[in-house]
Design a protein that fits this description.
Organism: Catenovulum maritimum
Number of helices: 12
Helix content: 25-40%
Protein name: Solute-binding protein family 3/N-terminal domain-containing protein
Number of strands: 12
Strand content: 15-25%
Largest sheet: 5 strands, mixed
Distance between the termini: 39 Å
Order of helices and strands: HEHHEHEHEEHHEHEHEHEEEHHE
Keywords: Signal
Oligomer: single chain
Length: 296
């Protein structure tokens, strides 16, 4: 397991740390809001570290620093654009992120977020068991975070939703049966269920349905750091070409794909109107592929 280099925990400390390591040829700073033990953050760090290492011979030295600055989601894009506190972020792509930053259009999790399972309240188990039509799901109340990219996509697809600001509020609301389901990526839902089941006892993972909403995690670089953008893109392309990225996804996420058992679920295949037209779906080597038997 890679240990994150969280050298600076608050803003003042972070700024104080910068001069000590500024001699590196490329100084890469990214935010780790969820904490250094979150598997998603560990994976993000591994991807960046590997891309930078692969590019070292061509681009020279680097320093990679994960900063636990607790930047709210609503502010994160602005901080990346400025490039002072952080100059790199990994996030689900959105139109405003792609237009404001230097986006590297290589999905670092190979599109795994595209497949969502449903976290539901146990009181609604029978309702979801008998659900067969997409319109039935659209007319059920989804629990969503106000700033999630999933929220933008589902609203564009005309799903009914109740939105709140904080992630913990969303799942608490579902536990109290104030909404009916919460879509989560197959790489997230099982860990989250393990984390919350002791305190939020009304939750369960619905076992017959899944959603396919195309989505991708990209690396976004500050417009003020074009050299860093160029070297990370080079490194990621090398990871794709050498099969390293595919291997990392398999090692980190295969267990969740097996648990999700997608071949035995009814999958509602939806579009995503929020994705850019140049999303690289034509590059088949970038995306996870499954042989799924489902209505399309």
């Amino acid at each position: 397991m890679v240990k994150l280099q969280i050298n600076c925990l608050v803003l003042v400390t972070a700024l104080a740390c910068i001069p000590a390591i500024s001699t590196a040829a490329d100084f890469v700073k990214f935010n780790i809001n969820r904490g250094d033990k979150d598997p998603r953050q560990i994976y993000n760090y591994q991807v960046l570290e590997t891309a930078l290492k692969i590019s070292e011979q061509a681009f020279g030295g680097y320093q990679l620093l994960g900063l636990n600055l607790q930047i709210p989601t609503a502010r994160l894009l602005n901080e990346v654009v400025k490039g002072d506190l952080i100059n790199v972020a990994i996030s689900v792509t959105r139109p405003n992120w792609e237009s404001s930053t230097l986006a590297i259009k290589i999905p670092i999790r190979r599109g795994i977020l595209s497949y969502r399972l449903l976290l539901i309240n146990q009181k609604n188990k029978d309702k979801f068991k008998s659900l067969t039509d997409l319109n039935q799901l659209k007319n059920s109340w989804a629990c969503l975070g106000r700033f999630w990219s999933t929220t933008q996509a589902m609203e564009a697809l005309e799903f009914k939703s109740i939105k709140v600001k904080w992630d913990k509020e969303v799942i608490t609301m579902l536990n109290r049966n104030r909404c009916e389901y919460m879509p989560r990526g197959v790489h997230e839902i099982f860990e989250e269920m393990d984390h919350y089941q002791a305190s939020l006892k009304n939750l369960m993972i619905e076992d017959k349905l899944a959603l396919y909403i195309p989505a991708a995690f990209y690396v976004f670089v500050s417009p003020n750091a074009p050299q860093i953008h160029k070297r990370i893109q080079f490194g990621l392309e090398q990871m794709v070409e050498q099969g390293i990225l595919k291997q990392m996804v398999e090692q980190n996420y295969r267990k969740y794909l097996d648990l999700a058992d997608l071949k035995n679920r009814k999958i509602f295949y939806l579009g995503n109107p929020t994705l850019a037209e140049d999303t690289p779906f034509d590059r088949k080597e970038l995306w996870l592929r499954w042989d799924l038997s489902a209505d399309r």
